[in-house]
Write a structure and sequence with these properties.
single chain, 307 residues, D-Maltodextrin-Binding Protein, domain 2, 5-stranded mixed β-sheet, 10 helices, 36% helix, disordered C terminus, EC 4.2.1.1, carbonate dehydratase activity, LysR-type_TF_proteobact-type, transcription, WH_DNA-bd_sf
């Protein structure tokens, strides 16, 4: 198998999160998928995935590599697909995004997108809920978990890292955690996901060690902006995407805690209706979301790290 084929297999493993699922999707044996990834890793001289008995996770280097390769492979597929580039981007597109993601990633880049497609109009719903695309007139929606609704297809976007933070006055009162298990003794602010209205555990990683912290926040909300506002007021420890915390960390309103630990990165998924080939407008917006995500820099400002 050529290297491009190996890259496609690695991208499918990253998308589905397991060798077995990728093998089923590609109609290959699990062994063939595993061997293909191993050969690619050997050629590149780096490990793309970490394997254990429970899951397959991308390494930091592997995630960065696949995030760069994914749009290139998709662009090549688009060029090779007959008639794809000849379809005009026009009409009205209705999309659903979370407010925090829209403000941090989409809105700053939206003028350029609209200028490239003057015949396209957008209706944008800002919401934390997970709309069922088969029941509502939404063309594209954003998800933070792999969609399972049968009436939807999706494109995996990049994964974003979570960062735990707290207000300086809270840390002055309660102390600064030195280990993830210390969080069990602290007030926390939990985010209720739009999928099951529950808070999910937090996972921390360092040098092969994995720590799971169950959700037991004193306050739980289903709006990330409200969670962030409470964190600024010193109500407890909260974890959010690094890209949404830059201003707070730079200004000192919030401080990063546990900087020597990594939290689990969550991929984003752009979901669209499973009604035949997507329209040119849908494809254009999917490309825009993917490009916008890949342009985001997640560096945590030094001022946001406790001294």
């Amino acid at each position: 198998m050529d290297q491009l084929g190996q890259i496609r297999i690695a991208l499918k493993v990253a998308e589905l999160g397991s060798f077995a699922a990728a093998a089923r999707a590609l109609k290959l044996s699990t062994g063939a998928v595993s061997q293909s990834v191993a050969r690619l890793e050997g050629q590149l001289g780096l490990r793309v995935f970490e394997r254990n008995t429970r899951q397959v996770r991308q390494t930091v280097q592997g995630e960065q590599l696949l995030d760069r390769l994914r749009p290139l492979v998709r662009a090549m597929d688009g060029v090779l697909e007959p008639g794809l580039s000849r379809q005009p981007v026009r009409g009205v597109l209705t999309v659903e995004l979370s407010e925090s993601f829209a403000n941090a990633v989409v809105i700053p880049r939206l003028p350029q997108f609209m200028a490239r497609h003057p015949a396209l109009s957008l209706i944008i719903h800002l919401s934390e809920r997970a709309t069922n695309l088969s029941r509502e007139p939404i063309d594209v929606a954003l998800r933070t978990v792999e969609p399972i609704e049968p009436a939807a297809r999706y494109r995996r976007l990049r994964a974003f890292a979570l960062v735990p933070v707290a207000a300086p006055d809270y840390l002055a009162r309660a102390g600064t955690p030195q280990h993830p298990l210390d969080l069990l003794q602290h007030q926390r602010i939990d985010f209720l996901t739009p999928y099951d209205r529950k808070a999910w555990p937090a996972y921390f990683y360092r040098d092969g060690e994995e720590i799971e912290i169950p959700p037991q926040g004193r306050i739980a909300l289903d709006n990330s902006q409200a969670c962030l506002a409470l964190a600024r007021q010193g109500m407890g420890i909260y974890a959010d995407y690094a890209l949404q915390l830059k201003d707070d960390l730079t200004s000192g309103r919030l401080q990063r805690i546990l900087p020597d630990w990594d939290m689990l990165s969550w991929p984003l998924f752009a979901v669209y209706k499973n009604e035949g080939p997507p329209s040119a407008a849908v494809r254009a917006f999917l490309d825009f979301l993917e490009d916008s995500c890949n342009q985001v820099h997640e560096d945590v400002p030094a001022a946001g790290k406790p001294g």
